[in-house]
Specification:
Blueprint (H helix, E strand, L loop, with lengths): L7 E5 L4 E5 L4 E4 L4 H14 L7 E5 L5 H4 L2 H7 L3 E5 L3 H4 L13 H8 L9 H6 L19 E3 L4 E2 L2 E8 L8 E5 L4 E5 L2 E3 L4 E3 L6 H12 L5 E4 L5 E2 L12
Parallel strand pairs: 3-4, 4-5, 5-6, 10-13
Antiparallel strand pairs: 1-2, 2-3, 7-8, 8-9, 9-10, 11-12, 13-14
């Protein structure tokens, strides 16, 4: 990979970030809205000077609509395979209810947003999004097969420098992606990019699992935080002083 090209390029999605992984084989992480697919095509062809066929994999950090609502549009643009956490089989394979944090915890999502820079969704985004991975959705609502189920410690297909870290807490299927060579962490909705630094997400499904996941991430020497929400943060040893908001 060209040393001037970062390991991942951010794209603003539906109130969240998506990322293009820029290795020999390209991948897209968290296509939350159809415009992500359109923007990804421009990044691939104009910024990276690559062919759309070079983008081979689609990887959600977890199965919530703001991270997968642009899947159909992404499949339409790229001949890519879907790679997802093994823990989403309960929904995609067995048709069980999609898991969100309990309703009583939704005010914590608002508290989170007070501490991060929000990317407001556009009306076109909302009208175009594929209605999958909604709260309380019981049936799959999604027909594309998962080509590869990812587990903890796996290297990403086509991108062996990226490693999967299972980080349940926000959801049971949450994963982060770690690129040790560049110190880049795609943190999904586990760690957010706050105004004052990295923030631990308090909008969670399981507090104990979240605490365990955060402890794992604290051991990483992160120099570039690429969160699902907030802002990209660069610095030295960013996990050392994680912010926990009340």
């Amino acid at each position: 990979m060209n040393n001037n090209i970062p390991a991942a390029i951010p794209i603003h999605g539906f109130s969240s970030f998506a990322y293009i992984l820029t290795g020999h084989t390209l991948a897209i992480v968290d296509p939350g809205a159809p415009r992500v697919a359109r923007m990804a095509e421009k990044v691939v062809t104009q910024e990276l000077k690559r062919r759309p066929s070079d983008l081979r994999y689609i990887i959600p950090t977890h199965w919530h609509i703001d991270h997968v609502g642009g899947l159909k549009a992404t499949f339409d643009k790229f001949a890519a395979d879907l790679c997802a956490s093994r823990h989403i089989r309960y929904h995609l394979g067995d048709g069980k209810r999609i898991i969100y944090p309990p309703l009583r915890r939704f005010p914590k999502m608002i508290t989170n947003r007070m501490h991060v820079m929000a990317n407001p969704p556009g009306l076109r985004d909302m009208l175009e999004m594929e209605i999958i991975a909604m709260p309380f959705q019981k049936k799959r609502g999604f027909r594309q097969e998962v080509a590869i189920y990812l587990k903890d410690g796996d290297s990403l297909p086509g991108n062996p420098d990226w490693r999967v870290i299972e980080t349940p807490g926000h959801t049971p299927d949450s994963i982060c992606l770690w690129h040790e060579k560049s110190g880049s962490l795609i943190s999904g909705d586990t760690i957010l990019g706050g105004f004052k630094g990295p923030i631990v997400n308090i909008f969670v499904w399981d507090d104990d699992l979240m605490a365990e996941s955060v402890e794992r991430l604290k051991k990483l020497k992160v120099r570039r935080l690429l969160p699902g929400h907030g802002r990209v943060i660069e610095g030295e040893d960013l996990m050392k002083d994680l912010i926990v908001i009340g």
